[in-house]
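User: Hi! Is it possible to get a structure for several chains at once, not just one? Here's what I have:
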Amino acid sequence: DQQVKQNSPSLSVQEGRISILNCDYTNSMFDYFLWYKKYPAEGPTFLISISSIKDKNEDGRFTVFLNKSAKHLSLHIVPSQPGDSAVYFCAASERDRYSGTYKYIFGTGTRLKVLA
Amino acid sequence: GAVVSQHPSRVICKSGTSVKIECRSLDFQATTMFWYRQFPKQSLMLMATSNEGSKATYEQGVEKDKFLINHASLTLSTLTVTSAHPEDSSFYICSARRRNEVYEQYFGPGTRLTVT
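Assistant: Yes, the chains can be modeled jointly so their relative placement is included. Here is the combined structure:
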């Protein structure tokens, strides 16, 4: 049962335009969300995060929006650049009920291709 | 910075042998380390969480006798895949959490394991 889903496996965007990547989750206990960028055969690189008490967080070209009632978050990249081409994962944090440690549940990923 | 290294970056081993992967936090003390695996074009799946000096907590479906995790110091965790089989071939990624941080994880570059 996939608790964090990214329904678009791929997305192509023209350079300079906006890229919008979406993520849906099912567990209302998630209290912190993150977006990572990943290249093949490399570890994920942190992009931006948002606490569940906020609905927007912005960092340069990256903005994350959180809609708790819809259990949906999105990552906006404006303007998109060819170097943004990668696989993007959203992750939700939940507290492990046995250890008390906060751990991530990753989404399924969206491959973004920014066309020059 | 918060740099995490993994060694080796790639390893090929024969079926039935064991292989050890190291994860080190280079410039910080990691009270918690996480181990993930990623199959091609799939998400990162959490395998286990380890806290320094205590036993690892394994996710459901992960065989603890097959994937031995040791977190002997605040800068080193190891994952040993015992009696490896071809189906264990995967990309293994570790991450580390700094003391006093709740949500953040810093990811290593990953290790590609191929079992022949």
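The CA atoms of residues 36 and 107 of chain A lie 10 Å apart. Chain A has a mean pLDDT of 95.

User: Great, thank you!
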